[in-house]
Each structure stands twice: as C-alpha cells, then as structure tokens.
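Each lists sequence, tokenised fold; shown next:
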Amino acid sequence: AILAQGLDAAPRALFQAHAPLARAPHPVTMGKPGQAKQVFRKYGSKAKPSTSKPKVTTKAKPAAPKLKKGVTPGTILILLAGRFRGQRVVFLKQLDSGLLLVTGPYCVNGVPLRRVNQRYCIATSTKVDVSGADFAAIGDATLAREKTKKRGGKDAEGMFAEAPGKAGPSAERKESQKKADDAIAKGLSADVKQYLKTRFALSGRQYPHEMKF
C-alpha cells in the first residue's frame, strides 16, 4: 500500500526494508530448456620450465630364462624350427643370452654347433655322455654371424659389381666343432647314432601331446 502511494510518501528506511531481493540471472540453456550451460574457467600454467636435465635410466639386462624340466647337458632335443627342423641334436649348455648350445654331432647327422631357442625344441628322455667334450670356451660371440658389406649404390660400378662370396666357417669355429664332437661321437652306440640320424616326423593320427619322447 505504501509503495502504491508513491516513493515520496514513504520513509526511505521503510522502502529499503520492503524492497524485493535481487534475483539471480536465468541460466543460459544449451539446446534443451532447463539445461544449464557449464562454463569452465581456463587457468594459465604457472609452472616454470624445469632447467634440470632428465635422469637417464638404463634398463636392466633381462635374466636368462629357466631351462625346461628334464633338459640337462647331454639331453637329446628335437628341433621344431629353422634350417635343421626335425633333426635330433645333443644339448650342451645354456648360453648367457638364454639360447641353448646344441650339436648334431656334425660327424653323425650333419648338424653343426648352433644356438636354438628352447621354445622350439622338444626334450626327449634319451641322454648321452658329454663329460669329455670341450665346449667351455664357446659363447654367443663365437657363433655370431659376421656382418657383410652390401653391394654398391646406384652408380654403374655398384650395379654391376660382383656379389661377395659366401664365407665359410672360420678355422676357430672348425676347431671348436671338433673339440665338442670328438668325445661325444666316440661314446655313442650304433643305435643312438641311428636315432640321431633319423629325422622326426608325424604321420596320420599321431599327436605330439600324446607321445612320450
């Protein structure tokens, strides 16, 4: 009633007491009515760039995997991959890289000293004596492949250059092969030699998981 008569007739304090409160602005909708718009404030990065050099971490050398159960020096293995897959070889030792050092022997079945992954081997129950063989000095460096230079570039001399000849085994490797094989081959019986020469194969309805090697 006082407001209807005019602002001059009412005391200033009474008008301020009965004045309506200020309302908040209506939220801005985004497409659908009643859905408030979310406003995100962007804060600047106050972090100063680091002047310290990042720490250089060196990865630890992974440990060699454990040998399969039943794989000991002298165990005859069956190779499942590689150039000599299906051949039977004699296990000598595990190298620092985790690979297995095996031999045919070369004088028996033509398999030289090689490094194989134990994932691609089947261990048999047959064992031979390797106590007299000398293979302690053989390591990964002995059996590593030598890097050969590629042929020339696109010039005429490089295109028609002769390909480098295939290098055979070195004298050191031949000597290591002889030391490792002589003692093993002398202790093999005729039946074991024939067993090493025979290539492993499966025929119809033969399953390796049902066999006892």
Remarks:
- The mean pLDDT is 77.
- Residues 171-186 form the longest helix (16 residues).
- Helices lie at 2-5, 12-18, 106-109, 140-143, 156-159, 171-186, 190-197.
